[in-house]
Amino acid sequence: MAAALAVAGVLFAKRALFLWRLVRKAKPTERFDDIPGRVENEVTIVLGQKKLFQRLLPGVMHALIFWGFIVLLPTIVMALVGAVNRDWSFPWLGAQGWFMALVDVFILSVLTGIVMAVWIRKVVRPRRFDGSHLGEADLILALIALVVLTLLGWHASRIAAGMNEWPAGASFLSNWVSGAIPFPRVSERFFNWAHVLVILTFLVYLPYSKHLHIATAAINVFFSRTRNRGRLEPLRFDVPDDEMRLGVNTIEQLTWKEMVDSFSCTECGRCQDVCPAYNTGELQPIVGNGVPEEMVWDCVTCGACVHECPVSIEHIDHIVDLRRDLVMMQSSFPQEAESMLRDVERIGNPWGKPQGDRASWAEDLGVRVLEEGEEPPEILYWVGCAAAYDERARVAAESTVKLLQKAGVDFAILGARESCTGDPARRMGNEYVFQAYAEQNVATLNDARVTKIVASCPHCLNSLGKEYPDFGGQYEVMHHTQLLAELVRDGMLSPARGESEITYHDSCYLARHNDVRDEPRELVAAVGKPVEMPRNGKRTFCCGAGGAHMWMEERGTPINEERVREASETGAETLAVACPFCTVMLDDGVRSMGKQLRVVDVSTLLVESMED
Amino acid sequence: MKVLVAVKRVPITGGKMVLTDDGQAIQTRHLGFTISPHEECGVEEAVRIVEAQGGEVVVLTLGPPEAEDQIRECMALGADRGIHLVTGEEWDAQATASALVEAIDAEGPFDLILFGNESADASGFQVGIRVAYALGLPVVTGVKAIAAADGRARLEQEVPGGRDVYEVPLPALVTVKEGLNLPRYPSVPAKLRAKNKPVDSKPVTRPESKLEKLRLVVPEGQGKQAEILGNGPGAAPAVVEVMQKLGVA
Amino acid sequence: MSVALFFEANDELSAQALTLAQSLGEVRAFSFEGPYAPAAWASALIDAAGDDDIVGPGSERGNEVLAHVAAQLDLPFAANVTDVRGDEVTRQRWGGTLLEEARIHAPRKLLTAAPFAFAPSDSLLQAETLRPDVSGAVQVTEHIAPDTGGKVSLADAKVVVSGGRGVGSSEGFAILEELAALLDGAVGCSRVVTSAGWRPHTDQVGQTGTKVSPDLYIACGISGATQHIAGCKGAKKVLAINADPEATIFAHADYAVVGDLHEVVPAITAELKKVKG
Question: How many whole angstroms separate alpha carbon A60 and alpha carbon A109?
Fold first, then answer.
């Protein structure tokens, strides 16, 4: 037995060391900020199983097994020592009746969990397991079951052999089973060794299997983003060639967090379930397949996967890092996106339209354009490229300025001095172009002494607010719905509530990446009767434009049509949005599907409600 | 193969031409800059030839100090060296050609010299041809396919009704058109390396202009009043009526 | 005062150049026979012209030959001229979307006429035919005819249905192809479309693409950048279809339809089919 322990120990240690070295050699990432938040996540997500409970049944199933094993941990020590020294007893704890009662309770809970798991896998068979290693999963469930069954057998045998250090009656289950144990002293050894063997097998198997998450998940959760979910980590270009990392092409280029991500995946498939690209296209499954190149480009960076993942894997980092290598090193990317990149780089906006025309939409509206050297306004309204150049997106900007003027807000726009924030370039992986624009915009904003910015576009909001601080730009950035909601609350704007039913679509970059969900709803409730779509708030379904997809072609069923279908099923006549990309994508979807749905920005609804 | 490509920094104009107050130039305050698409294809072609056969690609430009940006862009595509003739003024085609000839002579013989068919801005159609005469080189223009090897080049010129083929001995001067190839999207390492490649800059003085620019004028007819036939698919009958009136339907 | 004119028979641009030449003096026109060899043709033209001003059409060939003349004589050459006043000319820049007024400092003028800047002259012309010796000169050795599959070429089409970014994809062009086929026209596109890989460069209309001169140019989902306008200036009439009422293209169009081309173009096709029976 001692030999078995030693062998298992060595095998496990070798493999663990190999994995540890992979992590050690991996690229750096800054993950030590906000320690309190990280500790909070450990408590709620790991101990509290918060993300698993986002799906009730599987959540309960897992919690029963997980909490079971927390309680059963001491029994593993007892078994390991007991295997070589049958008379050893865990100091104090081994004699506690209440503890052994607890053990029995949790043996039952684990077994219940296993039964539920088997039922889910064999009867319910959810689609999210497509692509995962089903055989491996079955093996793991069998091993877990064996662990607790052999433990039960061992405790029962000890009672039957009179070797229990604890009051037998306390451990009701073991006590009950003990009556059926033949040859108690032999069985006691048998079950102890069997229990240890199963554990050792598990131990050795663990670092080769997807069950590795039991070692790494807690670590992975700790090192995930607690805030600034929309912020991508910048790359450095001003370092010597051999230190420069421009994305990921081989394993060595993963950051250590990305490495731990890959160790923590259990192939549960929840990410796949919520991925808009996967659900509307003909994709290969994420799980079990590495990352096929089409998937790299099909991602819309909506973050549904990250939100859903119980072990806090951050899929977007992986996808963007793969894109970075493809775009910046290999120049390999969908051709239709090339003009967008060139236009952003050479002209300053992804539409390739003249920068000089940026304020044309505002010409007749009496909007102040902040010129160089002038006193800054209280609020800078960052218009964004879409509103400047797209006729459908423009409407929201027109409405917003009308409202700001009506409320007497002191604001101005930058006009031609506003360039693309660089978001589409960054999401495509062209970090180089993004940084050039970030630096340029920060210089413009800092020279103008801007401190407060309101943006209508959630992508601009995210870059300005969450990503520009990395480049010296610290501003108070809010979404136009947040300012408008504040104005309504303060009585500066008085919308009239109408009778029409309005369903509000949460933009990914607003609701998930930046946690703005309530204010747009306040506005919708102020002008009409809100109706929620099934996938709302943090679980919203993307419009399809993210990840630079506004400029790429769609394969499979368009994502926007899927969302339009969901919206029209609410029965509402109006689909309210708060993002220029969502406006265009959902309006396109409504037209191509011939639905009777009016896609309109929340700000426009507000203006209209005040006109009548 | 030693290949020279001549390029010119031009603004990326948008939907309308706006002039400076003195009417001497385009207002470029918010415009981006580039080289003409014809020239970009020329640089790409030169780089491809040298990648296949060895040699070097030299980029030559006559322009303002900022034109170095364009030289670096060409280097990101793969050009090895740059020659920058620095001037703050606009030169006419004849003067440009002499300055380029002087620089090319100083550089020693090239196997192939590429120009854009015409510059995006002045569109004089003549600088390449003048340079060829001064250097005593055969010249073919409007080329959309080049096969250069072993001291000869086979060139395809686009003409109405197809393509004309020319065969010339090297060295030769060829003016090319967009469509010659699809220029690559430079990788970031290439862009970073481009920052360190050598550029030989020297100031040049403009001679008297024989085709003297007096002023620029935006032509009328920009700001036409279009007759609105309708909105959306409902305008179809009105459109067909116009087509019948024009005799095309 | 006589003027030498490089003239190509049955060429509308030459007919327009004739008008320009006639405004400058008594025209002596010269045509060529034999293989095209621009340097040799230019020398012959120089010999024939004596000290006269030399005018040519603003075609590719006209500009090339005149440029050779200018290089051989080392004199200034003003290409694509729209007006001449003594020694001052107005010429086209940026494919015609900008004009330059310039003074020629030379004993004689070398000019080409900007396409469609002059009305074609209907004078009956006796052109002298030159047959220069082109042996040894750079010349055309072979002509490759395109395999258009019988379709109308962009440069010759009477109707061009052109698509821009608004079309959205290469499949989106199907509705434009249908309309073009119905009108015996050709399909063109803007530079954004060729960059995206949706159509080949041979379909590109613009300053660096093909310059077209149809009776009707239909611009669908094209914003109207000057480099594109430079390609369709020769159109007699332009119809613009765009969802954005502020699109720049409308400032260059004769007719406008504000709407989504994906709805408007099929509607026009349907209406045409109805009318044609």
Answer: 10
